[in-house]
Design brief:
- With 196 residues, the chain is mainly β.
- The chain has one domain: Lipoxygenase-1 (Sandwich).
- The protein has 3 helices and 12 strands.
- The protein has a 6-stranded mixed beta sheet, with no helix packed on it. Strands 2-12-11-8-4-5 form a 6-stranded antiparallel beta sheet.
- The radius of gyration is 16 Å and the shape is globular.
- The relative contact order is 0.27.
């Protein structure tokens, strides 16, 4: 049974599912209804989900090689893989998925932070107030069972990026924490530098 999380809540995934080896982190969102101009339909909102690999002390120490996103689909350890970029967010269910092989995450990485930013948000004059039904969920890839879900229901108007949640390893056990913090970062690297 899936645990429905609230902001700041943590769930011990290792206790929820004994022997958990790998998870799929799914992120989804819908574009809120907007009116087009007289001659022009509004540009689709392109949200990009990414994983920031953090080492001891929860710090981001690497460069782009410790980011898993649309331009770097697989971490150098091969333990984290982005399943591809969705340019519009259309359709039901997950819009972007990131696979994590928990057993293969190198021991120096203690934390994997999942973030979303709007591609070219400032240029396109877009923000998360134009997004609705956003969520992050964690699924056991062996069984397809959803372990937990966090619905991002706060108002994020004016924010161009979001820190959604994180996986962290403590004493050999994996936890997921719901974060839901909006920011005004423009790129995944700007978001990652918040953890440097």
């Amino acid at each position: 049974m899936s645990v429905s999380l609230v902001k700041g809540q943590k769930v011990n995934l290792s206790k929820e599912k004994a022997g958990l080896k790998s998870v799929m982190v799914g992120l989804g969102w819908d574009e809120a209804k907007r009116k087009g101009g007289l001659f022009k339909k509004p540009e689709p909102i392109d949200c990009d989900a990414s994983a920031v690999m953090c080492q001891q002390g929860g710090k981001f120490k690497g460069g782009k090689e410790d980011l898993v996103y649309f331009a770097n689909l697989r971490h150098k350890s091969r333990s984290v893989k982005h399943m591809g970029d969705n340019l519009t967010g259309q359709g039901d269910g997950d819009d972007e998925q990131i696979m994590v092989s928990l057993a293969e995450v190198p021991p120096e990485y203690e934390r994997i932070v999942f973030v979303v930013n709007i591609f070219e948000a400032k240029v396109r004059n877009q923000h998360f107030g134009m997004i609705e039904n956003a969520f992050i969920r964690v699924v056991d890839t062996d069984t397809g069972t959803e372990l937990c879900r966090f619905n991002l229901s706060e108002q994020y108007s004016g924010k161009t990026a979001m820190i959604c949640g994180e996986l962290n390893r403590l004493n050999g056990e994996w936890n997921f924490t719901a974060i839901g913090e909006g920011t005004n970062d423009n790129t995944v690297l700007e978001l990652a530098n918040r953890f440097a």
